[in-house]
Amino acid sequence: MGEGDCIRLRTPGGGGYGSPLDRDPAKVFQDVTDELITRDEATTVYGVSFKPSSTTVDEQATARQREHMRNAAS
Asked: What pLDDT is attached to residue 8?
């Protein structure tokens, strides 16, 4: 290392707070687009569903998935 050199550390996961089911689906979609999570993770962790053969969030399916996940956790 020399003067002016920069080190960047990237650690996995953000920890976050609150329920993943409360995360804005648009932000989850952006995480998928940025390749931070997979589409499968978006569905299984955040309850966000996508329209078949599309990169658009399916709002109705997302609402159903999230309700199902909340009920299963109760």
From this structure: 86
